[in-house]
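Standup notes
- DV: blocked on the single-chain target, sequence here:
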Amino acid sequence: MITLGELQITNFKRIRSLCITFPRQGTILVEGPNESGKSTLFEAIYFALYGQPIVTETNRKSLDDLITYGENQLRVKLSVHTDKNTLYIDRTVKRSKGSTITLRVMSGSGIEEVINSVRAANSRIIQELGGIDGSALLNSCLVEQKKLSKLEELDAKERRDSLMKILNLEKLSYIEDRLRVSKGEIEQLDALKIRYELANCLSQKEQLLISLQELEEDYRNGLINMAASQSKSLYSKIASAKNDLGQAMELQQLLARKKELEGTISSNKPNRSFLEPNTLAALFLSVIILLVALFANISWFIKGLLLIASVAFIAYLVVSNLRRLTSKDATSQASEAQLLALDRKVSEISTSLGLKDLNGLQDLVNHRNMQIAEYETQIRFLQTNPEMVLGVDLQSRKQKIDQIKQEIQVLDHRINWLRSEIPSSEENLRSPQEYKKEIDRLEEDIRVREIAVHILQESTKRIISNVLPDTERNMNLLLPVLTAGRYHDARISEDYKIEVWDEEAGRYVGKNIFSGGTKDQMSLALRLAFAIASLPQERGTSPGFLFMDEPLSSFDEERTQSLIDLVTIGELAKIFPQICIISHSKSFDPGAFQYFIRMEDGRVTSSNLSRREELSLA
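- DV (later): unblocked, structure below
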């Protein structure tokens, strides 16, 4: 719990010199006439803690305005006790030269830390106060003069910010801010995803190019094999057709030879007459000569010669004719044998060629020549346009090749866009696996942090939401005390507007219909209820002091006494170890307070607190 120790003031507004020590526990009344410096005491504590004038003052423009008129510098020293450390704050403001500070932080073990930087010291003080800054303190346990309704006038954000600081939830907020995923981290994740996709696209393209190369090579080999196979088949058909042509030519030659043999056989066919006409003529002539020789009246010598010659010639003719007949028979027999062999050969070739009629031989020759020409044309076409005669398997491969090329084209478009999203000066890409690992790590980190932020937000929301019902419950305890039993039941809206049950009206009515004094009492009841609800005793860094500046200005005597009882012997005295009320009212007994300070003209004229007269500015 935070409590105040010694306060020393020199040349701060109306107070020229003051030194008091606040008791660790007790109620303090600060009294005196107007402009005696009572409220300045309140402001000096605020300045010592935060290094600034109270922010609601519109007539203060600079720290110089805090220096007493006619003086060149001010000095405020304040010691503050927390559960762990004691802070010794020493602030100085020199006119036109700004402020300086010496902050000594003394731990319970006696270790001292000295801070002389204003910014670092201010930050450390707020840290030691559990994150409660000036606005949060003014909204809770520092009740300014004529600011009883301050809490009601705050907007939702201001009230939430104050609660965050009062409840020490700024640590949670700090953790939440640290855990909250920043725009830069989202952009970093998006950039990694772009790089991952680019690396993945490049890897896919590389694999597709390898597959394309293999398929194209396989396709080319298939084309070659297919062309070779089809060419082989066509060449085989050409060879078969040429073989048929060869057989046809052979058949034509055989038929010509057959015809020739048939002619030969016909010409050599034996004449069944013994003597041919010429031979008969010669024989007849020889017989006449023989008869002449026998019967002519010639010499016997001549007759003998003619007779011998005629007989010899006749014998020659007979022998010659016999020889002729024998020779023709042999030739005819040989030719007939050859003709029989030719007939067998012709039959074999005709059967091989599938000819039923030798008259179709020429048609067969013409058909085979046409086939050969057609096959040769197909071979030339196949050699120049192999893809035009693809088989089913090769057509499937060709379709796969075209599909891969389209996929590569799509990838190229995507790759170009992804590259445009990456700075041109960036180093080479890493592998997709590395990016995926980093993305998974970041996404898991973001997921966990988002869950943690959600938990913190929900926890903060629940803690803050609990303050309103606690405030309302506390107010219903304080309201009857502060209104002398006139009002007992109040309710508070979410924007901290007060409605009170009015017995005469028989309903809840708004605070604004009541008199000024009653409105102040309701507002004070709300402020005190809020302070109790938002500063639970178990918090080690909750303020243990309550300062109220002129809270009794609109209270009548009865209700004044009710407030005095509340802070001196009532519920507030049990909650806050240090309670200080600034008042110039004479409507209550000052003896109700354990301690008092009487001020006049910026000086303490009497007090039962431990004090020193003057603080050196050296």
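- Follow-up: The first helix runs from residue 38 to 50.
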